[in-house]
Every structure is written in C-alpha cells, then in structure tokens.
Amino acid sequence: METLLLSLLASLLLLPAASGHFEVHSPSKELVAEVGSNVLLPCTLTPVLPEAELEVRWFHNLFTNIVFLLKDGIEDRQHQSPAYRGRAFMKERPTSGNLSLNLHNVQLSDAGIYNCFVENTTTKDYEEDSMELNVVGSGSPPLIAVALQDSAVVVSCSSDGWFPKPTIFWKKENGDLDPTDIETNTDMGELIRVKSRILLNGSSEGQVYCGLRHPVTGKETGLYVKVSDAIFPRTSPWAILFWLLLMVTIAVSAVMAWLLYSKQKRSEMRLKEKDVHIEQLKWEVEWRKVSTKKESIFFDPLTAYAGLIVSPDRRHISTSKTVQNVPQNIERFDTEPCVLGQTSFQHGTRYWETEIHEKTGKFWSLGVAVETVRRTGGQRECPENGIWAIRGTVDGYYALSSPPEPIIVRSRTPRPQIPGLLNDQGTHEPERIKRVGTLLDYENGRISFYDVDTFEPLYTFQAQFPHPVIPFYYIGPGISFLSVERESMDFR
C-alpha cells in the first residue's frame, strides 16, 4: 500500500502544469519589405488569454529596443523606442489571438530580428517567437546617356534607390558586353546609386541593353538603346562640318530654349508668389476673425503628472528631471506627462494660444479632451478616446486621428511687414512651429488649429461632443508650454 501511494504521488508531481500554458507562433520566419512601404509582422497567441494578465512586447534585436509594448491591455509609449513612435501599431486586440504588428514607413535601419514576446503576468510564464525583416530598395528605371569620346561613343547607364547593391549588366543581340567601369555611391538615406559605361566603336553592335537585377527579390529593370551611324565621328571634312553645324545649331537652340524656359519660370514664380501671398492674406483674415475671441487658459496643477512643473501663475508648464512628491487624487494623470486646463467648455466659440518651447526635445501634443478623459495608465490619443489633438515630432507634425494624418506645413515665411510679394526663402530647413492657436466651436463640433506666426490653418477636426471638453496637453521631455494671455494679443 505504501509503495502504491508513493507511485501515485510521483505521477502527480510529474504532471505538466496545464494552467497558464500558451503558445506564441509566427508563421513567417523571413520577411522582405521595401523602403517607405508598410509591413505586417505576423504573430498569434493560442489559446487566447485575458488582456489583464498579459504583457505583449515586440522588440528589435535587443530586449530593451522596444518597438511596441502592451501591459494589462494598455499601450505603454513611455518605454517605446523613439524611432518607432507613430509607426508601430498592433493590428488587433490580444483578445482575438492576433498579436500581429503593423510597421509603417519602413526604413533601412528597421532591418533585423523582431521578437514577439508574451508573458502571463499572473503565472510568470512566457513564450516568444521571432522573424527576420529584410529591407530592400527596388531602384528606379535606368537613365541612358550618350556622349562622344575621340572616335568612339560612350553609353552610360545609371539608376538610384537600390539596397543592397544591384547587379548591372550590358547585352547586345549576339552576346554580352563588358562595361569599362562601374561606380557606386550612397545618398542621404543610405540607398545606393549605381552607374556603368560601355564603349562602342561602331553601330554594328546593333541594339544594346542595360539591365539591373536586385540581389534579394530578383526584380529586373532595363532599357534598350540603339546608336545610329550618324553619331559616330568620320574623318570626312564634310562630316566634320556637318557635326560642327549640328553642334552650333543645338547650342543655339539650347540657349534659346533656356532663355524661353527661364522667362517662363520667372513668370510662373511671380504668379506662384502672388498666389502664396493671396493665400497668406486669406489665412490672416480668417485668423483675425477667430482671434477676436481670444481668452487666457490656465493649467490645472491638480491634473498635472508628477513629472511636470506648473508655475505659480499657472501659465507655464515644463518637465522635471525627477518625479515630484505631489498629493495623489483621481484627477491627476498617473503615468502620462499630461495636464488639463482649469476651465471646461460646453457651449459657445472659444480661442486660445499656446507657445511651444522645444529646449532639448521635439515630442508634444495639444488640443482638447472630454472632461471625463481617462487619467490612469497609458492611452492612445485619438477621437475614439475622447481626445482631439495635433502632435509635433522630430519628423514633422501629425493630426492624431485614426490613423494619424501628416500635417503639411506649407509656409514658414514670417509675417510680411510691408505689403508686396514674398521673397524667395531658399531651400533651408523650415522653422519649427512656435505658437499654436486653438479654435473650439462647441455647437458645430469643430476644433481647428493655426500656426499663429504665419496665420496658416494646420488641421480641423469635426466631432460631436458627448461631454464638456477641456484644453489638453502632452509635454514630452525637454518641452515647455506657455499659455498666452488675452492681453498679449497683437495684430501685426
């Protein structure tokens, strides 16, 4: 009897712990995506577990290089790597069992190993699977150029936008041709430009073909060219005279064409400058109308995240290097660096302005939120969560709709002091937005944002407000906001 009990006890100890067991699986171990495209990184969870028990972590190469992080059903952007902010989104909720990740605007630096890591925070069990993402550049169709060199003709072929380096080759009707040289270099985005040349001594080669083949996708692009007998130099003085006359004619035609083109471009530029000036005047008229309703907004310190500092006059807010010891209350944001205004609105038309000081950072949001907006845990800023806002990042500006929409800042020309045409500002990098005006039309469900320095309208949301709304701010590291007082309004 004692032996039977010991055997039964041993069998029970060896039984697998079925509770909490799950599997994470990626059906694709190797993916290929083009630069600038969107790619889906597949991952599934079986069986489906409650969101509150899960931590879902997507990371790139290193566990700490977080692409996307979901804890207890809440997206955590505080620990997300800056390179993936605004580019990485889960396709569905974990309750569906689909943990696939959408990665937008793929870059060369995105290449590498991606891990789908899932931990059951209750049982401390975890599983993961990985896949490799290869990023390629498909390249542009080749450009062909023909030039004379002594008694021969040089045909060059070039193409850019490749990664990795393509194979470039030449063919003729009866075989391959050997290039005289092959040049490669990279552009600002680390994409490869390749150029090759061949030397033709006579038109007997017939048609020649320049082709490029991608080493990963196998995609091939190419172009045929035929060099006429008339192009090859001859020792006949009549041929020399013909070519001289042809070159003079081409040169004169090119000069005439250039003069006509330059004149046309100058006319187009003047018309464009007038159109831009008229558009700016329209922006200014609209801005002056809404700015007559300007009022002061004060930050509510009772709602401010503990890592934010609100000035005594409640008009200035900035980030702190340490988390402050502040009284806890249900109104305060506990994980996100956010703050609300002191006054909520449920009727009428309101307008206020906010100065943005980007000291060492370029990540912030501002807009309006419903008065009942969630204050605990991380959340995605979007109309579905009761937040209508725009965001500034190092890459540009976005309206936080679903999905986010890029905001094209069409002009950063300062306000004209003397009426007239705008001057050409060159091709320098545009200045950052320094002051944003917010217009709230509650009854008509409209929230509009303006660049106060140029009068330019940035973006407009249309919504139906279920509750009173209140000014909303997200202050990233190295950012400070100043609420512009009503008395400081000017009409320059």
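The above is record 1. Record 2 follows with the same two-line structure.
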Amino acid sequence: MKHYPHHLDLKPVSHVQGTVRLPGSKSISNRTLLLAALAQGTTRIMELLASDDTHVMLMALQKLGVQWEQVDASQEYIVHGAGGAFPVHHADLFMGNAGTAIRPLTAALAVTGGDYTLHGVARMHERPIGDLVDALNAVGTRIAYTGEPGYPPLHIQRGQIHAERMQVRGNVSSQFLTALLMAAPLMAREQAVVIDVIGELISKPYIEITLNLIQRFGVQVERNGWQSFTVRAGQQYASPGTIHVEGDASSASYFLAAGAIAGGPVRVEGVGRDSIQGDVRFVEALEQMGANISMGDTWIEASSSGALKAIDADFNHIPDAAMTIAVAALYAEGTSTLRNIGSWRVKETDRIAAMAIELRKLGAHVEEGEDYLRITPPAQLRPAAIDTYDDHRMAMCFSLAALNGAARKGTAVRINDPKCVAKTFPEYFEVFTKIAGKG
C-alpha cells in the first residue's frame, strides 16, 4: 500500500486521456463480507476492495471467529460462513471511520446476541447512530452508549427480540435501513419482520445495492415502494458460491469528471450500464453539464466538447459522487447549485462546510446552506493548499482543480494529508498521474 508524504503538490495539467481499472466498490465489498460471514457455506469474493474500510471489516469478522483467507496476494478472498451466528460471543471491535462496517455489524451483533463493544476514531464518535439503535432497542435488543448518547462507542449485550414490526427514520443515513435489512433474516426465524421507514428515505440507490446483494445470498425482501420492507419467516442466508465485486462508481466519478473537464477521452473499467450502484447516474449530471458520455456493460467513457455548463440539480440520490460535481462546477460557465445534500454534514467530515472553505481558497464564490451549495467560479483559479479533513473524497475531488478546462485553466494545488485516500482508493494519485498529460 502506498505511503504518501504529508502533502502532495499537483502542477497544472493540460490534458487527460487513458483507461482506468477501478478498485472494487466499498459499499458492495463490506456488505458482501458481512453477508458471506452470516451465510451458510463458503463464498469466494473476487475483486474485493483493498482499503482501510474493508480491512476494518475483515479484522472485525476475524475477531468474531469468522474464518477467511486471502488467495495469494490477490483481491480474491474466501469466507467460511458462520451460518447465522458469530462463533465468538465476547469481543472488542475497532471500526475506524467505516460507516459501512459499524452500522450493519451493530445490527447483526445486537440480534445474534453476546457481549460486544464497538468503537472507532474520534470522527466516528461524532457520526450519528441513534436512529439505528432506537429501532433495534424498540424490539428488544440491548445496545447502550458508553459515551455521547446517539453516537458510538457502543456496548451490546444479549436481548430478547420481538421484531414483528420495526420502524426507522430514513432522513439521516440510508445505512440505518441497510443495517436492519441485513439483520432482518436473523430475526425472522419464527415470523415475518416488517421494517417501516419514517419520513423521506435518502440515498435510495444504496438501498438498491443492499436489496440486490441480500437476494444474491438467497433471501427475498418484499417491498412496498420505499415505505416498508418485509422479510418472510424461515429464510436463511446461503452462499452464492462466487461473487464479483463491481468497480467503485463513486471512485469512477473523479476520472470521468477529469475527461469532461480536460479533453479526454477517459475510460473507466469495472462499472457500466449493468451496475447495481446508483452512483453511475453521476454521468447524467456530467451530460447535463455538456460532457460527452458513452457506456458499455462494464465501462464508461467521458470526454469534453468545450466549456462545461452550470448545473442546478437535486443530488440526494448520489451524495458521494455529487462532491465531484462541486469541483467540476469550477470549470462551468455560470453558477451551479447542488441541492438536497444535507447528508454531507454527517459523513467523514461535515462535507458542506469543508467543501465551501476549500472552494473559496481557489477563488470561488460559495453560498453554503443547510442542505445546499451554490458555487460561482472565479475568472481564474488561485493556487491553494487544500485541507482534506481526514476525508478521502475531499482529497480526490480537489485533485481536479489542477486540470486545464475549456472555460478556465487549472492551478497549482497542494493536497494536505493525501494518505487519507487509503480509506477507499490507496493508489488514487498514481492512477490520476497516469491519465494526466504534461502541463
């Protein structure tokens, strides 16, 4: 894994072109690991993401007694399913800053029972988990906060589950519903479990990923729109044998945006029109901004056809990839507005605040609302040292400010703490450099 210096200096880049093989999807990787651990049988996982977040999940499963092995030095893993209950009933688990690990694991552990503590880095202890805990404790689990109420760290003990009907709020994080859906078959041994969503459900495409993978592991979920989900009694997870992890569609956004800004074509491989990830819809936003997009079953390509146009759109469905649009807006003619992105505030950092601060360093005029950003680019980008807030997506997004676009030139950019990209894409800057022509 790459070891980065304290900062990385990027010079202006005149043109980008090339093909990028994407790392595996974080969302698919961590869901698949947990489902494989809970399933009956052995699962061979191909192209698992190598990153901090998947390492956190692998180490937690190991501590819980789940046996797995990596095939040579590849990204192929073999997970020996524990058949619906973890072999180890007493464990202290470090979850880093991995929301895709701590939330589903909390639900699974609370339902299967034992004595567990879950904690993470300081930022994890600021990321809400109260809606999930409330939903679980209401049906008899015993989850207690050992720090600030509503946030990790957590202490889980064995409860008495009566989960015919559950309720969870949908407007803070879709991961709470994902966690309940993944744990539901463990609660539906004797009778069906119904999960009702209270209020608006955000980030719906991530629930589609969850439902798709649950089905791959042999469990059917019946749904009533986005309002309620039913898991019939008596279903158990069973290994699908071999499962391939798609390339990460959120990671694809940086390279596709680069092609849209600075010529291209740039092709990403590992994700395409057949993807189960909602973030592939990022390309619709790039097309609205004037980029040329073409797609195959397992690839997407972007190129520029002149200056980008400003965009005004709702990005509730693709909050992670929408960060890339915020930086692409620097190359658009006019003012862009990103709406319905309130979930940014409870991610790896408060991304609305962080994005506003860093865009202003480059000379942009930014209006920051509770759940929106409005970005007016400057006549010329200013050189800047970008702080990354221990947030992988901040580092990757702002690399794009070095690109020369049709509307305005890129600038010298210093990325502070570039190693934060290890959360999902440890080799990001090497790959970025490969598609970047000499400026």
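The chain is about 30% helix and 25% strand.
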